[in-house]
User: What shape does this take?
Amino acid sequence: MGSRLAIGVLLVASMMSSASDVQAQAAAMSRQRVIVDTDIGDDIDDAFALALVLASPEFEVLGISTAWGDTALRVRLVQRWLAEVGHRDIPVAEGIATTSQTPFTQSRWARRTASGAAGAPRSVDFMLDNIRRHPGEITLLALGPLTNLAAAIQRDPATFRQLKRVVLMGGSVRRGYSKSAFHAPRPPDKEYNIVSDIAAARAVFGSGVPLVMMPLDSTQIRLEEAARNALFARGAPLTDALTLLYHQWLDAYQPWSSATPTLFDVVPVAYAIDASLCPTTPLHIEVEADGMTKETAGAPNAQVCLAADEPRLLGLLMRRLMSDSPTTPATPAR
Assistant: This one.
């Protein structure tokens, strides 16, 4: 009797293990392949966006590409972050360096690392190589000026068009920058990511690749003090790194700026996780010579989110960053 029971337990355990393996394989197969192109290190929203990427099992992160300004130092920042949260396996690519007038507020954190950008692949090569390897499967999350993307288009437009889609933060369609939700909305503005490299933005919007655009209209979501305190007191590697980067950003701008960050770049990441958080409208977007992004007549070239579900989006962010679950599984060998 005892031996039969033991055999039965082993069979059940084996079946449960097999079912678990199948579920794990199904989850891995259903994950979205993503590349993140980010100017992390200046404003703090990129850090919150990257934290959400790393905390989301929906993503298979093929790599992180640095954009704009001192892209080599941004590589060091990302390398340190990934090392501290157990993701050295995720490649970091160095984007095209440019002149930038925006302060690199988190440079001290980036420099306190033994890692260096010397061995990092170049972003354009990295993007195109991965697109060729996974045609029609990659979502490119573009969270900074679009310089790297335009260079990839110039190098090999046919390969670039094999992206599944580009989900970008950029532009201003019906609403400009706003100090708070209590102020009347401004008219459309020249948004930073677009106006920093207007030619690049024009190339991307004319590339023919499926575009999802998150403009100022939907991305001015603020993380208030109570939520920040909960995150910064979490004590996990991911939130500890985020806390240090936040305080370097705050130190660079105080007392001239609010302590409350605006989560521009979190919105495209959240959309990629759950599109219902930011419903889109098909529009034809024209990038004008001065960097304004205007909706004009013509066949739609972008799906544009004009209003996000702010409470649900913040709820997603907080749940993911406060979770006891480990960050997204390691990138599989390819």
About this structure: The first strand starts at residue 32 and ends at 38. The chain has a mean pLDDT of 89.
